Amino acid sequence: MIQLNLPKAKLRGKKQDDKPYVWDMFRSKYVRLTPEEWVRQHFAHYMVNHLEYPASLMVIEYATKVNGLDRRSDIVVFNNKRTPVLAVECKAPSVKITQDVFNQIANYNLDLNVDYLVVTNGLNHYCCKLDRKNHRYDFIEMIPPYSNFRC
Question: Is the pLDDT of residue 150 over 80?
Answer without folding.
Answer: no
